[in-house]
Write a structure and sequence with these properties.
Length: 435
């Protein structure tokens, strides 16, 4: 059962419950388009049924490859960008220790490439790879994206030099289109194990395909629980038709209500640094889905309390552009009490006996109250804890809400024509033939 709840109380002064309830017919019409596949972008709706229709043979093969590669790898280099990168990183960073890179674990540590063109980044990466046993997952739906192509060429050359061509080809897995693209052709020629990104699943909706599943499993996390969470969330998302019973519909309704009231920016706020990549994934999901035709809430994110000491001033008193969505997690995995100190020179003995979670929750509640008073409507998304299951639920919840919200906004949520503009300029500047 879904354990995600969306609380809109702190938005009532900006869009009251009646305004939100009045959107229900529109919300249900948008949901209907998603389920019937009769609106713009309907050739990219493969994600809607993905958790139910996952190919079990593919999953078994994937687990075999994961086990084979894990035995001989201290590191896995995940080469990819955007939707071919953020989903895996979001789940892995949410589940692993913040200090995982410093403690040798029983599973490979995941490092990333292809998401940047920084020369110093690759120089540092190659230096680390010199001294570690590693494998590579190269991920590109189109198979032609420049950043991962450049990164893969660099890492592949290093791998082949380190292990020889034959062993290198046993250490690479390619995740790409079933039929076309440069990566597909390289993988076929070199004999890499291949996994397919379905044609009807766009990059930003692909975390529950091998794109996310393979790196997440390599990091040692339970992809069956992730998929189960998504399956359970799907049941609620597709079967429930009231705002109270279906949190995805509530979230789509409130963000559209606030957008129509003039809000231009939505800030995802979390008080846990391990959720920063969840916010990055969410930014791509909502930014690429809705930011078009001159419309859409601009997704932004803050990690509190850190960013209260940098961006807090702007949110409190700057342009009244924004709404905030707090992603709150009730139960921590561990407890760290504040120790008492006889001298109390720092003056914080009044906190003794409280857990850090109580203190963090008070900081969060204090922030919500301050921001609402300052003219920022706040939506709260609450989950009990963070594990594979709740992350699977959150993934499906955010995807479904995104589809509904995009249709309510009147855009095609499943294309991203604007992503091409910088590429044309870059190709011209680099002298690529034909540009
Ligand atoms: O959403 C999108 O389509 C993009 O942001 C892609 O995820 C990104 O450009 C990577 O594309 P590809 O997987 O084709 O390399």
């Amino acid at each position: 059962m879904v354990k995600i709840s969306v609380n809109i109380e702190n938005s009532a002064a900006f869009a009251d419950r009646k305004i939100v309830d009045n959107l229900l017919p529109e919300v249900l019409a948008a949901k209907d388009h998603l389920l019937k596949g009769d609106a713009a972008g309907n050739d990219f709706l493969g994600w809607v049924n993905l958790p139910e229709e996952i190919d079990t043979e593919m999953l078994a093969r994937l687990k075999n490859d994961v086990s084979r590669l894990s035995k001989k790898s201290q590191l896995l280099v995940v080469v990819g960008i955007g939707g071919s990168y953020l989903g895996a990183r979001m789940v892995i960073e949410a589940l692993q220790s913040e200090f995982a890179s410093m403690e040798p674990g029983t599973h490979p540590y995941i490092v990333y490439a292809g998401h940047t063109l920084s020369e110093d980044y690759y120089s540092q990466l190659l230096h680390i790879l010199d001294n570690k046993d590693y494998s590579v997952a190269v991920i590109s739906k189109s198979g032609t994206t420049t950043e991962p192509a450049v990164a893969f060429r660099i890492v592949k050359a290093h791998l082949e030099q380190k292990y020889g061509k034959d062993e290198a080809s046993q250490r690479i897995v390619a995740i790409t289109d079933a039929r076309r693209g440069a990566l597909h052709d390289i993988a076929v020629q070199e004999g890499y194990p291949m996994y397919v990104i379905p044609d009807n699943v766009g990059g930003r909706f692909s975390v529950l395909t091998p794109v996310g599943l393979l790196p997440i499993a390599m990091a040692g996390y339970d992809i069956d629980r992730l998929l189960q969470g998504a399956r359970d969330a799907r049941q609620t998302c597709i079967n429930e038709n009231t705002l109270d019973a279906n949190p995805a519909l509530m979230y789509a309704a409130i963000r559209n209500a606030l957008y129509r009231k003039g809000k231009k920016v939505e800030i995802m706020v979390s008080a846990r640094p391990d959720l920063r990549y969840l916010a990055e994934w969410w930014k791509q999901l909502y930014g690429e889905s809705e930011g078009k035709d001159g419309k859409g809430l601009m997704p932004h994110s803050l990690s509190i309390t850190t960013d209260l000491h940098s961006m807090g001033q702007y949110v409190q008193e700057g342009e009244r552009l924004m709404m905030e969505t707090f992603l709150r997690v009730k139960s921590p995995a561990a407890s760290v009490p504040v120790p008492s100190d006889e001298q109390n020179l720092d003056g914080i003995n009044y906190l003794v006996g409280k857990s850090l979670t109580e203190i963090n929750d008070c900081a969060t509640q204090g922030t919500i109250e301050a921001h609402v008073d300052g003219g920022v409507p706040v939506v709260c998304i609450d989950v009990d804890h963070i594990d594979e299951y709740t992350l699977g639920q959150l993934i499906y919840f955010f995807e479904f809400a995104c589809g509904v919200s995009g249709y309510m906004l009147g855009v095609n949520p499943f294309n991203q024509p604007g992503v091409e503009a910088y590429k044309r300029n870059m190709f011209r500047l680099l002298g690529k033939p034909g540009f």
